[in-house]
Each structure stands twice: as structure tokens, then as C-alpha cells.
Fold:
Amino acid sequence: MMISNGFPSLSVRIKGLDIQYAIFLILVLCVSTGSAEILFYDDFERQEIDLTNWIPRVSWSTKDNDTRHDVLGRKVLDIWGGGAGLNLTNFPEEFDYYADFNAKNGGSLGFVFHAKNDKYFYMHEISTTGSKHAPQHIGWHTNRENNWSVEITPFADNRKRRQNVWYRVKFEVRKNYKFKAYLGKVGAKWNSLVFVGEWSDNEKRFEKGKIGFYTRGGNRGAAAHHAQFDNIFVTTPEFNIFLVELKDKLAVTWGDLKIQ
Structure:
């Protein structure tokens, strides 16, 4: 049996799939309309990375969730350095990008946008305590064949984010090459995510493309940054992923759909 709403990334075969994950996808279909849609979702609950969704680096793997956060489910994406790994989907000019993340060794991690390939992309890096690259900042990077440019801005709310702590981020990607970032605690709802920075690319280099993650250093070497990610959502702008309401008024939240 195949379920699809017209987006390849949301077409899944029910057999062998986790029941709660299948329920989530059914809910996605219930709420996806022509004007507001979930374009992509991955919670990394499978034993291995889904190669129909990702072009991973060799340092990528799934790892058991060893925290108390139920919203993370049983598995998370675990990355040790290695540069940019990408999604296979080319997303439109405008979207919202949500993720849960944990900056571990190295204290920083990056989110990739509008990637043509692993040499041409935007990479916006969040630096926490423990980072040697401007902690408590966002580094708004552009990469062209390893020719990097960066503009660094401190968190707009002046709060400190810690290494080895799970957070939730939302990036708003808009026309005219504009980006805004919001942060909150892991499991935070949309209205508690706090604005932390914005940036525009006045040179207008990359209009569309793939998303992904970026971590510094070689694969698992002493200088490699270690980071973990989970609950990746890409949606049309301003689509509320945190509350899905069924026709019988039964409310189901993002966290409720994860394995407890």
C-alpha cells in the first residue's frame, strides 16, 4: 500500500514502517493543502539513514537516543565532522526549516540551504559555549568551492546556548535571499521559539536548492565537530507543524507521535 500527497519525500510503503510514523504521515495528508504543506519530514527512527532522502557523509549514522527527551524518539542522526551532507530534494525559494539539534564536541553546527551540490550552498552555523568560532553567535556563511564568506551576528536575545544540550531551531527562508532564525528548548512549540537573528545575501547567490547539515573537521578525527539532529521538517511558509487537529477535534502534537 502506498500513501502519497504528490511529494516523493512523503511517499512511503506502510509495510515494515513504524506504526506511529505511518500515523504521522496520514495526518500530514489530512492537513496538506495547496497553500500550506509539509514538504519533507524525517525523524531518523529507521536503523539506517534513508538513502532515498539523503546524500550522507561517511561520518553520518543513526544512534540510540540516550537523553530523557521523549520528543526525540528512539533514534537521532549522529554526525562527526566531514563537511556538508545534503537532502535529495530541491526545495522552492521560500520555506520554513525546523530541526532539533545538539552541538557536542566543538560547540557548533551548521544548517545548509539552497545547495546546488556539496560545493555551492549557504551554511548558517549556530555556535554555543565550547565553540572556538564566536560562541553565542550565528555565522551566516556562503560557500563556493570552499571559498567561504561569513557574516557573524550575536544572538539577538542575548541568551547563552550551551554545548551538549538539545535545542529546537526554525529558519525562515524567504524571497530576496532573506533568512531569519529562531531558537527554543527541544520540544518547544512555535510560539515559544525566540528570534535570534536575520541576514540577507545582497549578492543573491543561491536562489533554490537542497537542505542539509554541516559539521567541521575530518571524519571522527580529534578536530572533528560532533553534532546530533532529529525531527527535520520543511514546510511551506508559516505552516504550524506543532498541532494537527482531526475532524473529530482530537488534537495530536508532534511529540505525541514519537515513540515513547
